[in-house]
Amino acid sequence: MRDHLTHFLGGFPKWIRACLLCVLFALPVTFISTQASAQAASCTSVESQAIANQQGNISGSCTQSGLTINYSCSYNNSTSTETCNISGPCSGTVTGNSSGISSNNVVCQSAAAQSAGRAAVQASQISLGAVNTHITNVRDSIQQRLFTPVGRPLGFAGEATSNETPDSPFARVDASFNTLDDGLRGLFAYADPKSPIPMKAPPAPPPPTYSWAGWAQGFVDYESRYQNQTLAGSPIGRDTTTGGGIGGVDVTRIGLTSAQDAGVLGLLGGDTSAFVRNADGTTALVDGPSIGVYGVYVNGGFSVDGTFKADFLGISEGAAGMILTNLRLTNYTESGDISYKREMGSWWYEPTVGVSNTNTVWDNAALAMAMNLTNGDDVRVTGGVRWGTGWDAAGVHYEGTLSTLLYDDVIITGGTVATAIGVPLAPTGEGLIFGQLIGKLEAQWTRNWSGYVEGEVRGSDNIIGVAGRVGVRYTFN
């Protein structure tokens, strides 16, 4: 037996060889690394199997970092080579002799594990998009209602006009009602000559310094990537359906440094789920809650906003008979945008640029490393123009906007997409430029209630995505 045990890996015993395989495919590391032998203790059951097998053939399984790896090895006397068939989280064959490995086509983990890592980042970016939709509503509301340079028609006069019916909710509003809208119109002598409804600014007491509001939004997103595409002969396409809800509260402070500026500070929370279907038949579910904060500063047409959000996500994977339920991660996302709104006849346009970074931290570092998943970052840069206009109908004020944007994940680092023997199992999308169109219709039903619906389409090379969002906001004063 010892003659057989000395052929593979230059004299290492069989149980050492088997454990080297486990370490290689679970961590992974170089097959003949001297450091790998230190991991033999984690697969001690292999030793007794090797000793009991008088023919030099061994089979069994070992556990490394929570993953069970199956192996079946046989020794060929005529060629003095050992071939090991690997199955489970890793699959393929390894052939070698005393000189080292001559063939290795093992791939660690299915596409499900790799795409789940990217889907987790994507889920955080999608929920960030939901937050950004709310932020644009907040800053549009401040600019369109309060500041003459970018004011839009409102029809919120204190008495009925020729375009309002006696039953209109705005016709019944007391002109002296102390609301944020009335007070600010009185303060800034608001009057939009483009409004189809004559505006009046009756005397009103100064506006409240602070205004509180609550909001909620539901969103759904579908994206198809790399369908009919292969890498190293394996299909890499995947479809991801993401949905969730998010909401929060915020406070608006009027007159931070002057009568023409305002600041907003808010808290948010929500939940996001993403279901991944891979071309190889595997699936994965990514879901978990989110918490965060956001802020907005507006001064006339200029605005700047920032968001920090933490998503606590878990991954449940169905892949090749294996169910993985204890892989969790936290995505920390920071983002910021700068915009400047300008008038163009009855329309306005707003150039905007932004950047976001999603930092992925795996909770179980050893298990993530076993799947070749390491902490990483995804830096996205966005730029484009928003277009919009407003109108009144049946006592309701409407705002329509269209965003024409480009974005690029300029930096993707870390192991959100794993590698096996140094070969990527799926493309990351780094450097791909996406085109994005977002259309939104917002309705201001009363002084307190507003809502919106929003649709999105985006795409790049072999990637297409669509999304929808619907939300409401209530202002308390």
Structure keywords:
477 residues, alpha+beta, Lipocalin, 2 domains, 6-stranded antiparallel beta sheet, disordered N terminus
- Oligomer, anyone? single chain
Low-confidence stretches: 1-55, 148-195, 319-323, 417-424
Q: Kindly, what is the distance between the CA atoms of the first and last residues, rounded to a whole number of angstroms? A: 86 Å
Reading the helices and strands in chain order gives HHHEEEEEEHHEEEEEEEEEEHEEEEEEE
Strand content: over 45%
Rg, Å, rounded: 30 Å
Largest sheet, strands/sense/barrel: 12 strands, antiparallel, barrel
Largest sheet, spatial ordering of strands: 7-10-11-12-13-14-16-17-18-21-22-23
Q: What's the CATH architecture of the largest domain?
A: Beta Barrel
Overall average pLDDT: 74
Total number of domains? 2
Q: How many H/I helices?
A: 6
Amount of helix? 10-25%
**How many extended strands?**
23
CATH superfamily of the largest domain: Autotransporter beta-domain
Q: According to CATH, what is the class of the largest domain? A: Mainly Beta
Structural class of the secondary elements?
alpha+beta
Task: Explain what the structure shows.
With 477 residues, the protein is of the alpha+beta class. It has 2 domains: 2-108, no CATH class; 111-145 and 208-475, Lipocalin, CATH 2.40.128.130. 16% of the residues lie in helices and 51% in strands. The protein contains 6 helices and 23 strands. The strands form 4 sheets. The chain has a 12-stranded antiparallel β-barrel with strand order 7-10-11-12-13-14-16-17-18-21-22-23. Strands 1, 2, 3, 4, 5 and 6 form a 6-stranded antiparallel β-sheet that branches. Strand 1 and strand 2 form a beta hairpin. Helix 2 packs across helix 3. The longest helix is centred in the first third of the chain and has 36 residues, at 111-146. It starts with a helix and ends with a strand.
